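WARN no homologs supplied; continuing
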Amino acid sequence: MNDDKKKELIAGVYTRSSEGYGDIGYFPIYGERLVELVGVTAGAFVLDVACGRGAVLFPAAERVGANGRVNGIDISPGMVKETTSEIARRGVVNASAVVMDAEALEFHDGYFDFVLCAFSLQFFTDPVKALSEARRVLKPGGTLGLATWGKDDPKWAWWDALIVESGWPGMRTQTFDSGEAVMAVLGEAGFDGAETTVEESDFVYPTRGAWWAKSWSLSARAALERLEEKELEELRETVSERLDDMEESDGWHEIHEVIYTVSKKSDA
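OK structure emitted
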């Protein structure tokens, strides 16, 4: 699959999942944590790359205040539409979202104090180019903040295997599930150094519906959409049996490991 086709696939999958994507409970938690760890300041200009439904954008907008600005970009028109509507619904006047490719940012050099990107680096067709663009639009001394997924919870490995068998179209370019992997790609993009913080949390899906809604709202949707009705029903039956075995008193637990990385652009 060439780069243009991959971008078209990603934009389409996430446009179709954009409405339900906002209901995934853990993204706002981790988005707010990224903003906190990066230290977004009042009056700052912030770029949220691959803003999705605003898990980073909204806490950043609250932090920068009336004298700051948050620009969100996403390759998915559906995500931008939903986030723009949410911005209006909340009455947020210092943030906006537009459709834009992270690998070809339409901003002047040295425009932003902070560039943030959560859980999207693995989908860029050229992560080094995307990070190089982030570095270009940062002011000297500006800060890049990334959130990437760490190691997967092994008790859910069966789900990943089912998705691969179901026709996973390979949307991920690569994984960045270690501090070393993130550091390496940052170095290629011209960042001199970085600090990583690895945090683990136990997220609970209270109902089967919540788990299924999450699964249809993430990249696995690309595989699920390829299944015929009979195949999808068979998959549901297999999943139901697995979920029966994993159910706890309060629902279904998944351990999330998140790697937060903060890097400064050199003053030179």
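Residues 136 and 208 are 44 Å apart (CA to CA).
OK
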